[in-house]
């Protein structure tokens, strides 16, 4: 699995349990050249690091809250016991991490696929401020992919005059209905990194949408198969061949394509203003390139 903008969350093994340490805190992050945002992140980045495990693993996550407000973690799409789900505001008997607290989640992963972890306390604020990340559960059997990428979709509103991109550092406002900056793996085009492929590669892309609007994701020059939805594998006889897929809020899709058309190809959200930076003319926003090197 290769993603230049995302790191893997380190783990240790304690009596067969995979142990992770995750912390939430205010951060400053660059999304464009000379444009930084003040937001929240896990382990100093938004989206947070890739949490990687295998189906059947028991995991333990020590969560430290360095915010000035309480927080929890919800394991989006994972069937965990109620007291590990992180949704305290509906009355669950789940732990709440107050500022400077460390709490522990522990459960067994009985599923596989592409999932999400995110804040679930004051969720509109904390999640849209950046508290989210990918949780990838690998099957126990070997998978045959040459490249495996994550495309983590987020959007932001930052206070900037319309149709301008003014260098500076801005605090994001999660309460605005419309967003004006759109990111993949924490960056806006042309600051995004390309997905590098070789001719003939079998490529999987794990698309994750934890923003507040749906995104029709489109690739140029290729057709893809939809092989999983919300972490659930789709039987080959039911897999659709497409070049655009609408990824709803809170959804994940795994798609697969064969790199059989050399060049440099756009891969982007097809909502027109999502392909811009604050509505400035020219390509930007939720866009990256698929780039052949061989």
TrEMBL record:
<dbReference type="InterPro" id="IPR008972">
    <property type="entry name" value="Cupredoxin"/>
</dbReference>
<dbReference type="InterPro" id="IPR045087">
    <property type="entry name" value="Cu-oxidase_fam"/>
</dbReference>
<dbReference type="Pfam" id="PF07732">
    <property type="entry name" value="Cu-oxidase_3"/>
</dbReference>
<dbReference type="InterPro" id="IPR011706">
    <property type="entry name" value="Cu-oxidase_C"/>
</dbReference>
<dbReference type="InterPro" id="IPR011707">
    <property type="entry name" value="Cu-oxidase-like_N"/>
</dbReference>
<feature type="domain" description="Plastocyanin-like">
    <location>
        <begin position="178"/>
        <end position="280"/>
    </location>
</feature>
<dbReference type="GO" id="GO:0005507">
    <property type="term" value="F:copper ion binding"/>
</dbReference>
<dbReference type="Pfam" id="PF07731">
    <property type="entry name" value="Cu-oxidase_2"/>
</dbReference>
<dbReference type="GO" id="GO:0016491">
    <property type="term" value="F:oxidoreductase activity"/>
</dbReference>
<protein>
    <recommendedName>
        <fullName>Copper oxidase</fullName>
    </recommendedName>
</protein>
<keyword id="KW-0479">Metal-binding</keyword>
<keyword id="KW-0186">Copper</keyword>
<feature type="domain" description="Plastocyanin-like">
    <location>
        <begin position="30"/>
        <end position="141"/>
    </location>
</feature>
<keyword id="KW-0560">Oxidoreductase</keyword>
């Amino acid at each position: 699995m290769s993603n230049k903008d995302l790191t893997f969350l380190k783990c240790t093994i304690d009596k067969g349990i995979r142990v992770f340490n995750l912390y939430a805190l205010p951060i400053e992050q660059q999304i464009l050249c000379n444009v930084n945002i003040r937001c929240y992140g896990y382990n100093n980045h938004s989206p947070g690091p890739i949490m990687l495990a295998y189906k059947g693993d028991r995991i333990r996550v020590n969560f430290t809250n360095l915010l000035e407000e309480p927080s929890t973690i919800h394991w989006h799409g994972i069937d965990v016991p109620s007291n590990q789900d992180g949704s305290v505001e509906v009355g669950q008997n789940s732990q709440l991490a107050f500022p400077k607290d460390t709490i522990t989640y522990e459960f067994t992963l009985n599923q596989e696929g592409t999932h999400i972890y995110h804040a679930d306390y004051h969720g509109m604020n904390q999640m849209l401020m950046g508290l989210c990340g990918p949780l990838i559960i690998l099957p126990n059997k070997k998978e045959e992919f040459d490249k495996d990428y994550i495309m983590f979709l987020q959007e932001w509103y930052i206070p900037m005059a319309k149709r301008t991109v003014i260098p500076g550092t801005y605090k994001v406002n999660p309460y605005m209905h419309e967003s004006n900056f759109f990111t993949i793996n924490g960056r806006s085009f042309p600051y995004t990194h390309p997905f590098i492929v070789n001719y003939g590669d079998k490529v999987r892309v794990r698309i994750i949408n934890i923003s507040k609007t749906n995104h029709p994701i489109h690739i140029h020059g290729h057709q893809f198969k939809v092989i999983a939805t919300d972490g659930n594998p789709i039987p080959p006889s039911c897999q659709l061949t497409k070049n655009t897929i609408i990824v709803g809020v809170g959804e994940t899709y795994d798609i697969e394509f064969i790199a059989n058309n050399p060049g440099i190809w756009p891969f982007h959200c097809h909502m027109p203003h999502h392909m811009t930076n604050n509505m400035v003319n020219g390509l930007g926003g939720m866009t990256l390139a698929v780039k052949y090197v061989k």
